[in-house]
Amino acid sequence: MNRISVALAFLLALPIVQSSSRPPGTPPLNSAVERRLDSLLALMTLEEKAGQLTQYTARWTAPGERVRLIPDQEALIRKGKVGSLLNAYGADVTRRIQEIAVKESRLKIPLVFGYDVIHGLRTVFPIPLGEASTWEPGLIEKAARVAATEASAMGIQWTFAPMVDIARDPRWGRIAEGSGEDPYLGAAMAAAHVRGFQGDDLSQPNTILSCPKHFAAYGGAEGGRDYNAVDISERTLRDVYLPPFEAAVKAGAATIMCSFNEIAGVPSTGNRQLLTDILRKEWGFDGFVVSDWGSIGELRAHGFASSGAEAALLALSAGTDMDMESNLYGEQVEVLVRSGKLAESVVDESVRRILRAKIRLGLFDDPYRYCSVVRERSLILHPDHRALARDVARRSMVLLKNEKNLLPLNKQAGTLAVIGPLAADSINPLGTWDALGRPADVVTVLEGIRKAVSPQTTVLYAKGCAIDSSATDGFGEAIAAARRADVVVMVLGEASSMSGEASCRSVLDLPGNQEALLKAIHAVGKPIVVILMNGRPLTIPWLDQQIPAILEAWMPGVEAGGAVADVIFGDYAPSGRLPVTFPRRVGQVPIYYNHKSTGRPADDTVKYTSRYLDVPSSPLYPFGYGLSYTRFAYGRLTLSAARIREGESLRVGIEVRNTGERPGEETVQLYVQDEFGSVTRPVKELKGFCKIALAPGEKKNIEFMLSTADLAFTTLDMKHRVEPGTFKVFAGGNSRDLAASSFEVVAR
Ligand code: BGC
Question: Which member of 297, 508, 638, 642 has the lowest number of beta carbons within 10 Å of its beta carbon?
Answer without folding.
Answer: 642
